């Protein structure tokens, strides 16, 4: 499974992808801007590069909204979903129902599922002594979790991966409104909906008949219909689960590729991460993962629209932002703000948890956080326990991107 788009992207889309995958460049461009303050506002645009200001903008979801940013594309390719909605009755109801479908012991279940899937994939890689971190490990593992835990197995794994990547690209990253990206997202969405509608209908019928059904987010959403307060119609189950799974795969594989790439650039950090892996210390591995990802996050920027004329604190004064402005919350530079992050260029695993903005903040905080904090350390730990882990020679050992998504990163290890 490779390109989400058959056509060459338009210049603006290509430029956005290029910039998004060059964190050093983003930091170099934003560093001199710091003397202008944590928020720079001009006309109907604003960029937020301060850490406290980024938290403030994400927390003020009534003033800085997402519906205009994500709503139309989500509606086109998936159907309405919480990440494309501002605070409203339907948002609150659906977010609460999704939350109800998660059970307290899910992280442990996810851990054992992921561990077993990773073991199988690495066992297959062992005779060659090489592994593609993306296509041979993280992407299929996350896709298998979508099947086993979320209850959505596509016709085959390659098709599921193609659908999820194309829809994610179309919903969130098609900066230049590239027609090839749009078409691929539309086609994938149409195909996935037909498939998911059938899965939902089958599950509804099986639950109604009292048949035994696997315990998944899908079957839980169906069972939650026994209470009117938590009833979602078939179509609402499909678009809510659709939104969740679209966010679940390429995010994970991008994070793992970026984390491994950053660790391989830092022998000391790689060595301490390996010690944590060998000790099976998930918390310490997660701290390494979050810190490594700070140097190359999966979303350097989160977008909002100012709902009205407003202000954001800027030391003792305030920055005015005009209603209707597009506000870019640049979480990458925010995580390097020297006013909030001590010695930002240093790799440290003892930073406060709120240093990291990887999963957003406020109303739209990542729903998959509980998955990520287990799945990513599991993937990372299994890789780091391999002896002699190193990059493959030449371009294979560097991340190859398919548009905004890491598609391949080949590592070698001692067999
Ligand atoms: C490293 C992996 C991941 C990262 C870095 C990540 C990051 C994010 C971020 C930054 C947001 C907020 C976007 C915004 O405020 O504009 C978000 C929202 C969301 N994420 Fe993730 N995500 C990851 C993995 C996942 C996974 C595995 C799932 C599913 C299990 C998931 C599901 C969601 C959903 C449903 C939302 C929307 C939440 C809402 O609007 O209420 N994400 N994610």
Keywords:
single chain, 415 residues, alpha+beta, five-stranded mixed β-sheet, three-stranded antiparallel β-sheet, 16 helices, globular, disordered N terminus, binds protoporphyrin IX containing FE
How would you describe this protein?
This protein is α+β, with helices and mostly antiparallel strands. Helices cover 51% and strands 11% of the residues. The protein is built from 16 helices and twelve strands. The protein has a five-stranded mixed β-sheet. It has a three-stranded antiparallel β-sheet with strand order 4-12-9. Helix 4 packs antiparallel against helix 8 (157-173), helix 7 (134-148) packs antiparallel against helix 12 (250-264) and helix 9 (179-208) packs across helix 11 (234-246). The protein is globular and about 65 Å long. The chain starts with 10 loop residues before the first helix and ends with a strand. Bound molecules: protoporphyrin IX containing FE. Protoporphyrin IX containing FE binds next to helix 11, helix 12 and helix 16. Protoporphyrin IX containing FE (HEM) binds next to helix 11, helix 12 and helix 16.
């Amino acid at each position: 499974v490779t390109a989400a788009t058959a056509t060459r992207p338009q210049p603006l889309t290509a430029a956005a992808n290029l910039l998004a995958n060059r964190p050093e460049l983003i930091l170099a461009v934003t560093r001199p801007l710091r003397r202008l303050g944590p928020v720079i506002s001009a006309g109907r645009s604003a960029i937020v590069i301060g850490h406290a200001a980024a938290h403030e903008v994400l927390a003020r979801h009534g003033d800085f909204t997402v519906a205009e940013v994500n709503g139309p594309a989500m509606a086109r390719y998936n159907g309405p979903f919480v990440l494309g909605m501002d605070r409203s009755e339907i948002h609150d109801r659906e977010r609460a129902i999704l939350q109800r479908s998660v059970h307290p012991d899910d992280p442990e279940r996810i851990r054992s599922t992921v561990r077993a899937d990773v073991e199988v994939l690495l066992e297959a890689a062992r005779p060659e002594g090489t592994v593609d971190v993306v296509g041979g490990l993280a992407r299929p593992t996350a896709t298998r979790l979508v099947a086993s835990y979320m209850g959505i197995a596509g016709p085959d794994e390659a098709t599921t991966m193609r659908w999820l990547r194309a829809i994610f690209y179309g919903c969130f990253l098609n900066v230049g409104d590239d027609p090839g990206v749009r078409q691929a997202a539309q086609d994938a969405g149409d195909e996935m909906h037909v498939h998911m509608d059938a899965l939902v209908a089958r599950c509804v019928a099986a639950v109604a008949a009292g048949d035994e059904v696997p315990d998944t987010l899908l079957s839980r959403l169906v069972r939650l219909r026994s209470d009117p307060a938590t009833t979602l119609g078939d179509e609402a189950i499909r678009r809510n689960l659709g939104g969740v799974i679209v966010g679940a795969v390429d995010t994970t594989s991008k994070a793992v590729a970026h984390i491994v790439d950053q660790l391989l650039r830092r022998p000391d950090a790689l060595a301490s991460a390996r010690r944590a892996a060998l000790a099976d210390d998930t918390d310490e591995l997660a701290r390494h993962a979050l810190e490594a990802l700070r140097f190359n996050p999966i979303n350097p920027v989160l977008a909002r629209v100012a709902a009205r004329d407003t202000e954001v604190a800027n030391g003792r004064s305030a920055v005015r932002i005009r209603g209707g402005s597009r506000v870019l919350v640049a979480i990458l530079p925010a995580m390097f703000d020297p006013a909030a992050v001590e010695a930002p260029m240093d790799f440290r695993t003892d930073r406060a948890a709120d240093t990291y903005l990887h999963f957003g903040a406020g109303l739209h905080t990542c729903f998959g956080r509980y998955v990520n904090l287990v799945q990513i350390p599991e993937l990372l730990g299994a890789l780091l326990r391999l002896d002699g882990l190193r990059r493959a020679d030449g371009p294979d050992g560097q991340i190859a991107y398919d548009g905004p998504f890491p598609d391949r990163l080949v590592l070698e290890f001692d067999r």
